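Structure tokens please, single chain.
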Amino acid sequence: MKKLFLALLVVLLAIFLTACGEDDYEEVLPEEPPVETPAPTSEPDVDDEEEIVPFVPTGFMGIGEAARNMTRAEIISFIPDFTPQGEIVLGSWDRAAADARVSELVGGHFLATMASNMDREFFPNPMVTREIDIRDNTDGSRTYTFTIYTENRFSDGTLIDASHYVADIALFSGIFEIVGHDDWVTGEADTLAGVRLYDDQTFSVTIDAQWLPFIWENITYMMWTPTPLHIIAPGAAIADNGDGVFVEGLAVPIIDIAPTLTVGAGPYRLVSSDTASPRITLEVNPYFASTWDGYAPRIQTIIISQMDRSALVDAVAAGEVDMLSGLGSGDAINAAFARLEGTTHSAIDYPRHGYNLLRFHVDHGPTQFASVRQAISWMIDRDMLVQELLQGHGAIVQGPYSLSMWWYPYALQRGFYNRIIHYNFNPDRAIEVLEANGWVLNSAGEPFELGVDIVRYKDVSIYTELAWFGGYGISDPSINADGLMRLEIRWARPADGVHDHLSNQLFRDLESIGMLLTIFPTENIPLRMARAGGAAPEFHMFDLGYNLGLTYSPWEQLNPDPVFLGSHNTTFTRDENLFALADSLRTMSIDDVYDRMDFVDAWAELMIELNHQAIEIPLFADIHYCFIPHRLQDWRMNSTWNFSEAIVRAYVTQ
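Here you go.
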């Protein structure tokens, strides 16, 4: 048995990448002209200087890293008395991102059993967790027993105890690795056997042996948040009969219970949400005591104002909006620099913890052939995208990674860069890979002649089966009666102008190598990509942006098990080698992360195989900017330490 008494359990997830070597990807940032500072001709006039008067006690900067080894009472004792004041209006163009920030600030994020710092080191949250006891059982399973403080409260004043954490696990966690999870969610079992509630302070979670070891266990299996069961299911309660936990007193089926933000455990509470504006208003939760590092919220009101991306900079310049966060469009960034930076606002840049990509369905049509996917990769002018779309505020990537990942520079040092295919615009190379794979015919079955014939074909009658439904002639409109497959790509992309740079270039250049591209402006691409409800394949290629989580383990995304197809595995790949590489990464122990290079090498092997198979085409990883007003002080933010973490530790001046 191992005990974890608020001791450090570190996984370094993100180190801010600030420089690259000569052979590395280059971050292209806007050039600033040198500034000549003239010698002063007289002493400054003190009366002309603007005095900045904070609303909070002078020198209040939280506790910081020392708080990890403190008790909840000790942390609170360091926080001086003050009254939160001021207001910040955040301009947002992405409703999903705005909703995520609201959920973090209002929900249970800040009272999770585990916490993290700006370097994404994870450790028990000293404001919540007294102790975590880890026991390896004789059957190979592992039990995590949590003892928590019971002095924290929801925004309605209700005390938070262990049952509120168990409620969140039983109702919403979706962690299938918990013992008894499948029987619980299907209703075959009356209890969730792997979760126990012992008293108001103590609960445990047991993970099935088949899912151990797991490289990110300290986040996935040890980070739990509270949910206000008394609000979402009045009259219900969490009970434990000795065989596991269950919910008693429910008036509706469990599946009908939904999370809520009307009452939460975060530093802010939801005051109003105007869908017409749309405008979301948050105010300080008076019952929130402190973040793990000794910060109580100092800004009284946060307003998130939703508007069109093109109107953001004008709104800030007019004083309708105070700040912008996560700005990633080249036009918008340059406009913000021209009108805001250095005058009323300061700019903070950081690599986005994500990337943009084209994702393929690899189980039907031409894109089930790697040669076609590689040919499209060779026909994308990524330099053009970075310069025209991002206007230099980003970099080309050749895999599903971000420049903010701590392991990326280590992988470069160990030769990763020299082992991947560096796709960029090369029509000759695209034609070469197509012809090598048999795309050498026209619609009549005669040799394809570039400049005469419009589209290439491939004879697929020689295959006993193709990927989808085991027969090339079944429901695949790209195959004619003679068994020839037409090289036509059906592309679902958002119906906005942001993607016009890429679609215009591809539409023009793919035709020059004998490939047709049919573009379908599409709403709700994730549902179409997932083929929700068992829908038949409709498209071959999808355009989307992807934000990476705190961990990287694509085990579910590459899992060929039918239960994951569509829900997680949205390329529908069934490649055994890819899954084996993902599985080897997932099943590394957390000690391997400490060793670092074992993890880096395993990650690099997976990236290389993904790069060669091209089941998706990573396009670029952009640089994001945050434009903050000068009156907003103590602002700290990076790729994974986001707006929510920064705003709760910041303050405004008069």
